[in-house]
Input
Amino acid sequence: MMRSLSALVFWLHRAWPVLALVPIAFVHAGAHQLFPAETVMVNKVTGTILQVVGGLIVLYSVNANLGLFREQHFGSIIIGWLRSFPLFRKRKKVTASFASGGAGTFSSIRSSSRRATNTVEEKIAELERRLDEFRLHVNEDIQAANARIAQVHTVLSKAVATNTATLNQLSSRLELVTIGGFKQQAFGVLLAVYGAFISVFA
Output
């Protein structure tokens, strides 16, 4: 029973822009009952108020959408437009600064000295020494490559995480604008239409 009731409430809440007009219509009808001789005035006042409120709701929704995506609102846009008035703009002084600097590159060059060998034993020992030195250099190169790969992997992981967070934020903003903003604008438009309708028949 509770699930059915909550499902019914949720279903009705999805159509709140239309259902919200019902109490407004009751208030409008009650005003006619209180002032039966002022039908024209009641319709004109009610229609004007509803049109103004509906327009303000639409304006508020558009302003909220601007704040979500452009991080601006109508106030900042108007202030920026006033500040850009040509007669009030100050000339900017252009200053140039020159800096000279030198950069040097340093590179480590591996050098290996070749020892003079005379006997077979000395030649074998020299070959073993050079082989050990070569293995050491290879291990150093592998460690440097692994460190570079780990660094690149860390940078890419951070970039992917940042992009994912940005996409999630953008998705939530789009959902808010599509669902919440649309319903607010629809409610404002319905108020304005209702106000215009009763004003015509005033």
